[in-house]
Structures are given as C-alpha cells and as structure tokens.
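Lab notebook, bench 4. The sequencing result for the construct came back, and we need a structural model before the next group meeting so we can plan mutations. Quick request posted to the team channel:

Model the 3D structure of this chain.
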Amino acid sequence: MATLTSETIASTYTLLLKMASGGVASGLVKVQDGDATDSALSIGTVSIAIDATDKFYLDGGTHTYIDESAADIMDFYSGGTHMLSLDKTNTEVVVNEGSADINFRVEGNGDINLLFCDAGNDRVGIGTAAPGENLHVLHSSGSAASTILIENTVNGENSYLEVKAKTSGGDSHSAKLTLDGASEDFHIDMEDTANAFVITQEGDVGIGQTSPEARLHVEDDNDDRVVALFENTHSTGYGIAIKMGAAQPTTSDFHIQFIDSAGNVEDTMRGDGSDGVQFTGSADDAYSDKRVKTDIADLTGALARINSVKARTYKYTDEFLDQSFQGHKIKDWQKKTQIGFVAQELGEVFPDILQPAVHIVQSDGVSYDGETYNTGDEVEIIQTCWGRRGTLIMFANLIQAVQELSAKVTALENA
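Done. Here's the predicted structure in token form:
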C-alpha cells in the first residue's frame, strides 16, 4: 500500500491515487489517513462509498452535499437548503423538505410551467408560474378546449367533485357536483339537500326537483315562503319578461298557466290575437256569447236592491294600517278616508260579491273582532270581489235599476 508522507502533493504529481491496470479485485478499498485508520471514503469496482455518518460534498465546501441522514433516507442539499429527500423508510419523496421559499417546476414539451409549486405563497399552478389561488389552472395557448377533465370509466358509476368548508363555529359542510353515470344527469348535492340542483341530458333544469317537467322546474315544500323570487335592485329596473314565439299570440298561446295540485289548469293568462293579453280568471272579460248560455231571463227587482245598498265613507283601523294582517306594504291611498261599502252590509244585498280570505297575523297582541291574536295566527277578513264577478253583478243591477226607474218616471209622466 502506498503512503502519503506529507500533507501536500508536489505539482509534478498529476494523480492522487492510481490503481493497477486490473483495478480492484473485489470488495472496497479503503483510503487511510496517517494514523492508519480507515477514512470515510471507500472505492470499489462499481461503487464509491462513504460512511453513513458522513456527507458527500460536491462543491468542496459545506453547503452542497448528499447525506444519508438515517437508514434508507437520502437527503440532497444545495446552498445549505434541504432541497430533496428520498425516504424509503416512510415511502415518500419530498421536494423542499426544508420548507424554504424555493419553487418547484416541471417543464413539459411545450409548456415551461406544466406544474409549478409557488413555495412562498403555498400555491400550485398548472400552466402558470403565478398561481392566484391554492390551485390555479391556466390554458393560454394551443387548440385544446378542455382545462380540467374528471372521468370515471366504470359503467354506471358517478363522477363527482366535492367542495368542503367550515362554518365560523367550526362545523364542516360540503357541496358535491356529480355527473350521474346511470341517468346521465348532472346535479349538485348540498350538505342537507340531495339533488338541490339538477340538469338533465335534455337540458331541463330542476331546483328541488329531480325530474323536471319543463325547461325550468322549481319545487319547494315550505308553507312560509315564496317558491321563487326575482329581484331587480335597480331603482328603475324591470321584473319578469315573458317573450312568446308568435308575433300575435292568440287564445291558444299561454303566457302563464295556473295549475292545481292535480295538474288541472284553473286559469290562464294568454294572448287575445290582437297584441293583447286575456286573463281567464275573475279579472277577465266575461263570456258573453249567447251560444254558451242557457236559462236566459230578465233581471228584476234591481231598483230595490240598489236602494238597499249603503254607500259609506270610512277609514281603516290602526291594526290594518300597521300591516298586522298582511305581509305586503300598505299603500298611501289606503291611509286616507275611503269611499265604498261595508262588506257585511253589501252582502245582505249581493252575497255573491263577497269572499272570505284568510290572513296571517304579522305581530303579537293584535286586536281584531273582539279577540287578541299573535304572530302566525289566522284571521278571516271578508273582501269584496270587484273583478269580473262583482263588477258584472253590480253593473247589471245598476242598468236594470235605471231602466226600472225610467219606467216609473215614464208612468208618472203619462198619468
């Protein structure tokens, strides 16, 4: 074995150590120090080894090296920063084990930022080196239209994306976006409401309804709120617009249908064939065609009935004006002295004009008809139906009363 007798090698030496032409026969050959103790370096035919407790420096200094920090854990340092850990013990590969502000980037064939980890902001970018959120996917060039694809190739099974968060109190809640493999429908499931939003393959949308029967089908099962609210917060905006395909919608073109629980159409708002709208309910024109009428007879006794009607002036009670019986706003004209009739008095003459209506009390301690009611209680308030029915009854009696009075005047004039 050759021995180095001084700490330096003369400049005429070009080699520190030279093996025989046959190389090392087998095993590892140790490099010893002057005390005849083995150093950390061993050389073999196919390997170079260092002791497990030592580091293999690559820059001649102390900052860039490879270190087996523990059994089967290989750590790579650059500039003193723990850049990479190959950990067989814990079955993982860790990039940036030292938690430094050093980014990690994977370059593709045509995208320099195929994968980019922004260490300083703890964000991941795909296609971008400046991710704006925890995950930022950017497609900025090329012809591909898809950005993210979630695919399940098992027949009949779903593909879904679940989003989770916590309330201010720490309770977990979630929403799941699902493409149903069996029905082919897309739906959104909330934490407490399955199928809260559904889009069928036909393009029909259901809100609270899993099998929408129209392009938009909204269903609710609450008795204390409206099913749909359309709100325009602009001071001079519009509400709802219904556009028909016909240039002049006729009576067979329905703008709105009113359907009962059995599916029967009760009334409609429809075209009239003259750029107008008809309502088949109480506010619509009456069907006056003789061909749809029977038992036609003259109206009699109208003058006596009209003479029995008492026209009144009155004001609404404070409880009524305080909106104790209705959720809608009291109008300014209702706060003034009114001219009209008292329902109970009018009903003694024309009972068919009246209709009782149930109202929900809006506050506690409301006095009505000698009783005290609280929020949520129901009270009955009689209303006068001045739509088609009430107007026709009163109008016909007024016409007949004038004719009867005219006949009396004529008789007196001829007496």
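The radius of gyration is 45 Å.
Will bring this to the meeting.
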